[in-house]
Amino acid sequence: MLIPTEKLIKKAISNHRRGKIFFPINFVKFGSSAAIRKALIRLEEKGLLVRLAQGIYLYPKEHKQLGMLYPSLEEIALAISKRDKARIIPTGIQALNKLGLSTQVPMNLVYLTDGTPRTVKIKNNTIKFKIASPKILSAKSETNILVIQALREIGQKNLNDKDLEIINAVLKTVDKDLIKHDIKLAPVWISKIMNDVLKDME
Question: Phi, psi (5° rounding) for residue 125?
């Protein structure tokens, strides 16, 4: 007797830790697209899954005091990029936050990607994926890319000594050869900052 798609998906989900994000593509071996979609809807109705957005489900984790724990927008974005086998690059306030240049947590995220451009709505927030230029994707260091994006967000006229000190410290953790490769991908004023760090590393 054939095992129903819903039962197969339920068993597969239960083999993972709570807090994991799932997509319909994770269950393609268990049935047709229609059968998988219906099974996920039923599992959501039964409380096994929580629908975060269209085609994005959470195997929820409960906290005694805090209740249901939801993944961050960044965790959802990373899960989407993993599903799509795409590279994503943080931009704007998120780039500043990741480098310690801002304590502000962005309510909406924007990523550059070599995957499909799209906007994903998560409750009142959004994750936007924009096509990245081949130039920036040719960078060899994720840290260098993050620095470039953060400095673009700050702007040359708004850059202060404290920001520069943090940027310099971050760049000094990157291999010199990677900086030498990626320096040509940055605007002239950012290239100068990177080059000054290289000189200090000699």
Answer: -115, 165
pTM of the model as a whole: 0.86
Q: Considering 133, 155, 178, which residue would you say is the last residue of a domain?
A: 133
Q: Which of 116, 133, 150 is the last residue of a domain?
A: 133
Give the list of residues 6+ apart from residue 111 with CB closer than 8 angstroms, or none: 77, 81, 88, 89, 90, 91, 127, 128, 129, 130
* Secondary structure class of 73 (helix, strand, coil): helix
Positions of the chain with pLDDT under 70: 1-2
Residues 56 and 107 reside in one and the same domain: no
* CA 75 and chain centroid, separation: 6
pLDDT reported for residue 2: 54
Same-domain pairing of 120 and 141 = no
- CA neighbours closer than 13 Å in the CB half-sphere of residue 68: 12
Which domain range does residue 80 map to?
Answer: 73-133
Total number of domains in the chain: 3
What was the pLDDT predicted at 152? Answer: 94
